[in-house]
Every structure is written in C-alpha cells, then in structure tokens.
Amino acid sequence: MPHPVTTARPAHLTFVALVLIVWHAALAADYLNLRFALVPDAPQVMSLLPFQAIWAHVAWAMTVWLGLAGALFLLWRDDAAVLLLFTAAVTMVVALAGLAGIVALPALAEMPLAALVPALVIVPLGGCLYARGLKRAAVLH
Q: Of the residues 12, 31, 126, 141, which has the maximum number of CB atoms within 10 A of its CB?
C-alpha cells in the first residue's frame, strides 16, 4: 500500500524533534553513566529516584531508549515516532509507579529536582501527541 501524499515539513518539526532528542539523549547519558560509571562525579538523575524493583529499572531503560528512538523517528518524519513516544511515556509511568510503593509522595516532592519527575512523563507524552497531530496532518509517513 503506497504512503499517502505528505505535506511540506513544518518549521517547528525540526525544533521539537531536536528538543526531544536532547531531552532523551540527556537521559540516555545519565543511564549509561549510572550503568557503566563513565563519569562517577557527574550528577545522576536515576540515582536520585529510589528504584528498588528490577522491573522499574527495566521500565526506565525502555523509556530512555524508546524515547530517543521516537525522537529520531520524528526528525526523520516517520510515523513510528507516535508509537515509540507513546510507549516511552507509558513505560515512564510504569517506572514511576515503582516509586509509589517505596516512597511517599511528600518525600518525592522534597527530593532534588522534584519538578523533573512530572516532566519525565509529560515530555514524551507531549512528543507523542505532537507526532500524532503531524501524522493526522499527513506530515509523517
């Protein structure tokens, strides 16, 4: 089945895709730094979140890599970005659900960079909704 005719690339697409790439690349660098101790003195976002269960670590890793892939697919105008960014948002919700049983919400509010916790879900979800709108407008193929 041939792809439908796509419209011209909007100017904001590159900007939004690059913002998503930078966001997820920073999370990927954080993940790699924590996993392999590349720069031991660097601040680590993941180490601030008290993940205890292995499934929470797996969900975090899925979010990082699926989000980065989704951002790259968005830059390439591929409609797979919608599914990848949606999956990244869902897996982040799953990862953060692993915190609910361990740490009370007031303790999360007191942690450093407390505003980062909602942004971990909002950024990929916003990217997903943005990509979905572009797909409906026939910008992605």
A: 31
